[in-house]
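Thread: quick sanity check before group meeting

JM: Hey all, I'm pulling together slides for Thursday and realized we never actually wrote out the predicted structure for the chain we discussed last week. Dropping the sequence here so it's in one place. If anyone has concerns about the input, flag it before I start.
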Amino acid sequence: MSDTLASDNELGTFLRTRREAVAPAEVGLPAGSRRRTPGLRRSELATLAGISVEYLTRLEQGRDRRPSAQVLGALADALRLSMEERMHLNYAANAAEGASLFPCPKARPVTQAVRPTVRALLETLEPTPAVLVNHLTGVLAHTGGYARVFGAVGALDGAEPNLARYVFTDGRSRAAYPDWDRVADEMASWIRQVCSMDQPPVPQLVRDLTIGAGAAFSKRVESQPAFVPRTGLQRLHHPEAGELRLSYEALELPPDDGQRLLVYLPADDATAAALDLLAGRRPGGLRAVNA
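JM (edit): ok, ran it. Output follows.
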């Protein structure tokens, strides 16, 4: 499974998924009534980037792995890639030529310890929902605000909660996330991003998820590029508060920690009021960031 996760066609997969994520209107094209492809057609992207459809097809299928910097730049412009996405495109192109896509130490440990300063940081974030996870998505620590929101949908159940296990193997996650498919895609990308595929805990997690979730996990982890958005919007259906719209930031701790801090902020006034109510606070304690 580790060989499968270290995709033979990371560049092609990234180009295809980004192409399918761009709405025609975003690049000034009509949507049309008979569009079978989500996002842009190959012909449309090829025209925008100034390359042939045949060449784009070879890139996406992995039959050509040496695009020039000019071609990559044109594709990045046509796809409206962010700076982080452009960096990943470059990494994927280097990997296609035999370079390591995610250079990192082979013996990267699965960290369980939480440094005192990180615990103190979590305390200062109260009552904001925030959680600290290791690179296998195992939950190491969290705020009370996170427990009130995500604990209520079962994400913290069990002796060793794990976000990937929850998303793929706990049926409650599909009810909790109205956009479950997108959440699952991003979680599969996260698993692909793990560097030390030869460490026992990593293939074990992949095996457990493959058996526990079947194609819902295995097909995603084989097709999704190893690119995880570090900011975005997540919708969650809370059993008491109803639908919450949460803006999130994923903050990487130093490499030796192998940990990520996920912080969730209310994206509108209704969510801000709901979070205050769950925390037993007077309205206005948490302000919406994208109202």
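AS: nice. The CA atoms of residues 46 and 53 lie 5 Å apart. The two ends are 43 Å apart (CA to CA).
JM: adding both to the slides.
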